[in-house]
Design brief:
Layout (H helix, E strand, L loop, with lengths): L1 E6 L2 E9 L5 E8 L7 E3 L1 H7 L2 E9 L5 E13 L2 E9 L5 E2 L7 E5 L6 E6 H14 L20
Length: about 150
């Protein structure tokens, strides 16, 4: 699980970049559910870390305009595991977008210093499946014996 806090009304988490020279750089990101990419960093930070340029990409802005932005490759620690990510070089504040939240559960306590957690959605679903399978009403032996199945309310 990745944990963070709410600061000044913004959900934040720290991700650690693993650079090609062996150094590790922790950076605080604001979770931005309006950003559909993976990560966004100011151009200066991308240059300082020496991230590898991949290509330019077109980005649609909130005002329906389109701009060309540089896309870079990086490796971050995501829940303790190395993960390849794409970083858009733009803006003034590091942003974490929804592409990294795919198959994840995001929980935010929207209060000053509230807890922010990102966890694998698969673990939550898998755990529920194990509970359902162990319940006599949902066991594999009982499925198919009746046309009517009980509704489980949690």
């Amino acid at each position: 699980m990745i944990s963070g806090i709410v600061t000044s009304g913004q959900a934040t988490v720290i991700l650690t970049f693993l650079l090609s020279n062996g150094s590790r750089v922790p950076i605080e990101f604001v979770i931005d559910t309006g950003f559909t990419g993976e990560l966004c960093l100011p151009l200066e930070a991308v240059s300082l870390m020496g991230l590898t340029f991949r290509h330019d990409t077109l980005a649609n802005l909130a005002d329906s305009s389109e701009i060309s932005l540089a896309l870079h490759e990086a490796i971050v620690l995501w829940d303790g595991v190395e993960r390849d990510v794409l970083v858009v070089a733009t803006g003034r504040r590091p942003l974490l977008g929804t592409a990294l939240l795919d198959e994840q559960e995001l929980v935010i306590q929207f209060t000053d210093s509230g807890l922010v957690t990102i966890d694998e959605l698969y673990d939550v679903v898998g755990g529920c499946q194990r509970i359902f399978r162990s319940h006599p009403l949902f066991s594999e032996r009982s499925i198919g014996k009746s046309e009517h199945y009980p509704i489980l309310t949690i």
